[in-house]
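# nightly structure sweep
# worker-07 picked up a monomer target from the shared queue
# config: single-sequence mode, recycle default, output format = structure tokens
# input follows
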Amino acid sequence: MRLLGALGVLCLVATPVLGGASTYTFDVTAGSVAIQIQGDGSTGGGLAGTFAVTIYSDDGHIGESDMVILEDSFLYNTDYMKLGIGGIATANVGVVSARFTDFLPEGPEHITPSGTTGVGIVGDIDAPEPGADVDTDVIVEVTAIVTGLFQTTFQTEVSAGFLLPFGMTISTSVGASDIATATLNFTYGWVIPIPDISLTLTLDLVVGVEGTTHVPEPIFGGLTALGLGGAGFWMRNRRK
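# output follows
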């Protein structure tokens, strides 16, 4: 009887995982960020960190018709960046001083094979990589030490205040999800008033990032991802 009871709990736990949402953290394997002053100079460097994606999968394998939503972000610059401001000052951005700390999406998007809407997915290494847009805002934190004609420490935490188009693709193997790769690219436009010199700067932050995550195999992998704590939480809510 104890064995049958254990198997019954196992089945109950497996069901919501296969038909529900799982959140995966992608570790950045390659990334870049460029800061451009419109009509002036630019600077750039590497980007590292993590970002998270929640995937609603019906069968435990990431693929067409699944839904995805961007979640937490901790992306940061890995190189010192130096940017001239109109030939009169220089903005110095140290390592981990330009950060993208959260996504603010409108809602989930569908994975489609064509990539014309929603999120494109590559199911074959020889398949063309689709282009697609995911609409989300993003929170940006920047600290810059300004030297030259005027000297100040510029520090801010801002969001665009509206949805931005993010290009996104998700790639997995044909037979099983195992290692999933996600790419993101977007441009964040930003207007900064500088009252000290009665100047307004229009900046573009151009971001490209690729990350990978391990996706457990269907059924048993889903149980591993949920864990005992998640199982207890789900069962407690079922009793309510």
